[in-house]
Amino acid sequence: MTACGIVLAAGAGTRYGQPKVFARDAVGTPWLVSVVAALRDGGCDEVLVVIGAEAVRAQRLVATVDGARPVVATDWDTGLSASVRAGLAAVAATDADLAVIAPVDVPGMPASVVARVLQAAVGPGSLARATYDGRPGHPVAIGREHWAPVSASVHGDSGANRYLSTHAAVAVECADLWDGADLDTR
Asked: Do 138 and 101 touch, CB atoms closer than 8 A?
């Protein structure tokens, strides 16, 4: 079974003050580097990075990240759903059985969380999501059989949360590994 990571990094980051694809931690490491590394080290064979806002500049950054390949969501400004659709369309062209999706604003996510979620995703019909003390979080693993229905179900700023809830995604408790925090503001 093969897994492909998808980093959602297309937005303008209005609450953050800049596109989060360019955000860096306190020592200057791009968040993107950390999230891509967690996905790869956690078991993803390849990582796609969905970009949109400032796409030319973002492509240059993605090109510097080992193991990452950019995917442009041309309609990124219509909301998060555009990024999800672009990522799932790109992964459909690979031989992956699973897509493991995480936003770029989870630079603290360890590879152990990705590995645990992947362990719960047993094939192309799987749906699994990390939870933190019972609260849904990232990453999520979506089997190939769900890619088209998930793409059809997302709209505007809504991601796959509703689909995962209504289709009984396996909840994978990860609070012992990380707090699940995403970073929306500086």
From this structure: yes
Model pTM score? 0.97
Fold of 3-173: Spore Coat Polysaccharide Biosynthesis Protein SpsA; Chain A (3.90.550)
- Where in the chain are the domains? 3-173
From CA 107, how far away is CA 103, in angstroms rounded?
9
For the stretch 91-104, pLDDT in tens is: 999 999 999 999 99
Model confidence over 133-181: pLDDT tens digits?
999 999 999 999 999 999 999 999 999 999 999 999 999 999 999 999 9
CA angle centred on 159, ends 167 and 85, rounded to 5°: 100
